[in-house]
Design goal:
The structure is a homodimer. Chain A is built from twelve helices and twelve strands. Chain A has about 325 residues and is an alpha/beta fold. In chain A, helix 10 links the parallel strand 11 and strand 12. Chain A is globular.
Chain lengths: ~325, ~325
């Protein structure tokens, strides 16, 4: 995919009342907009992903995949706060001429939707053939649709929700507390809070996976009393994220996830969902403990033209990234 | 209950090869040993509890409860490493004349069983009418029974396992990583690692409770975009533990839980369970995600004289402490 950055020169208004000056939106594209302008596939990415969908959703998105640049104009925008090219806590705050770090404002899913709309306007896109996202990506896809400024023909919402649960917020709060327990987080330097970030990611892993998957892959023999595989695995996963992310971005993105509530500034959850006209598929993963399937069933029950499909998987929340064969099957009608 | 401390003057051999000098075992008792010496109820406590069972299991244990000092001689010993009176990381290491802090040796559930046996010998107890414990307490009860030095007539194992799962170890590892992210943990002072401990406890809460309980008790109205109840609740629970515990003890106790494997130094899990002669009840909580009911069903399936009872509850792992009405009902035959 091709990497681009769009610099919006006016102040960008945030839901919390603050403004971001000099907003940069990083995005990847593949393929070209056809003359009928009806081949746009817009992807919203999950928490720590970048906008290069071919990188993290290979097997579903790629040169020869179900969603490919020969047939589609594929777009994915990096969310505000993420360190993959959009304005984020390590960017220079034009007011102080220093990086934001802990002064970065809280951004919400509604802010993400507004940023997507800015980019769509910039690219001259007035209709989307398929808007798709899982987890934080699905949260954005819902809000982007509800902005009602762009025509969304088809909508695919995976392992996501209309309002983030107290349970999900508690999981994120524990992660932020781990980051904050690392006092270097307050030293405002690029690698501040790294040990906290490592711990935070290991907490997130627990919410993305399941008892069964750890049992299958991290079992020791019966003679071990210390240095268990599961401990090494947690440390490995934490370090792996720390090598490609920073604690400030992670903290901000987790707050954005918490903010998901499509009823905020609207009538109600049910009423908001009932306004959606798109042909919608809502996909849940049977073993997801972070975004349990009750949340996707609720969405599907209240969008008029929606169907719910459950993927039977032991991968938990990560099933929406991992269960590619099933995803290809259920998403085929949306090509 | 009455508080006691037993000072064992010989070196106490640990499973990892090290020795503890001057082992102190703190314990509570209530009631008196009857002349027939057949009224002992021995309780093993869970991770952060003390040995005052009337304090944390009121409604099941107390002056007028199912298990009471009129009928029973109730004993509970504080585990090694815990800061409720037994030798722990804040105790003075007689070799250095300084507190152990991070130099405290890794202790295992087998070490706990040996310490219980020392105390039983000290008290002249040769048979136990009922040995009971939940979670880490159930792990100890299994190992204590398998020492086979004391006659255990009845055994009640609640929300526990015969081998700690990779999932459970991963949950504990995330908690230790949160503690270690707080650099004050390495400063070896009584309140070292407090912010990490706060984060760790909030992670544990997620494993003790359920999505449903958070949904029921921590739901905000639809207009909130920050400062959610679930965030406050996590912080409150973390601080509450930090007020009564220390990071060094917590770290050591979590390692002890990880060590649970009754097959270690024995033939196999199944063979070990098949050796148990006690009349056994194994109790699971339907919504427990930390010690799922498959683990208790496994135990019950392989102890010859065991039955499995499931408590239907949305409280998750904490159900073994909270569902007192059900516990009274199912434990009544063991009075």
């Amino acid at each position: 995919m091709n990497f681009h950055q769009y610099n919006y020169t006016e102040p960008f208004q945030l839901e919390n009342g603050q403004q971001l000056e000099n907003l940069t939106i990083a995005y990847h594209t593949a393929g070209t907009l056809n003359p009928e302008k009806n081949n746009v596939i817009w992807v919203c990415h999950a928490l720590t992903a970048n906008s290069d969908v071919f990188d993290w959703w290979a097997g579903l998105f790629g040169e020869n995949d179900l969603f490919n640049p020969k047939d589609h104009f594929i777009i994915c925008a990096n969310v505000i706060g993420s360190n993959y090219g959009s304005t984020n806590p390590l960017s220079i705050n034009p007011i102080t001429n220093q990086p934001y770090y802990n002064d970065f404002p809280v951004v919400t899913i509604k802010d993400y939707a507004n940023a997507h709309q800015l980019l769509a306007d910039h690219l001259g896109i007035e209709s989307i053939h398929l808007l798709i996202g899982g987890s934080l990506g699905g949260q954005q896809a819902l809000e982007f649709t509800l902005l009602n400024k762009i025509k969304v023909d088809n909508l695919a919402l995976l392992a996501t929700n209309a309002v983030h649960s107290p349970w999900g917020i508690a999981f994120n709060e524990s992660q932020r507390l781990a980051i904050e327990a690392d006092a270097t987080f307050y030293e405002n330097k690029p690698d501040g809070g790294t040990n906290g970030l490592i711990a935070a990611r290991t907490i997130a892993m627990l919410s993305y996976r399941t008892y069964e998957i750890y049992e299958e892959s991290q079992k020791d023999d019966n003679q071990v009393y210390d240095y268990f595989k599961a401990s090494s695995y947690q440390k490995y996963q934490g370090q792996k994220l720390a090598n490609r992310f920073n604690a400030y971005s992670y903290w901000i993105l987790s707050k954005a996830m918490d903010s998901q509530n499509i009823a905020r500034s609207r009538k109600s959850l049910v009423d908001s969902l009932s306004q959606i006209k798109s042909n919608t598929i809502v996909i849940g993963v049977s073993s997801d403990i972070l975004f349990p399937t009750t949340e996707q069933k609720f969405i599907a029950a209240h969008i008029p033209n929606a169907k719910y499909v459950e993927i039977d998987s032991i991968f938990g929340h990560d099933g929406f990234l991992v269960e590619l064969e099933e995803l290809n099957r259920v998403l085929k009608p949306f090509v």
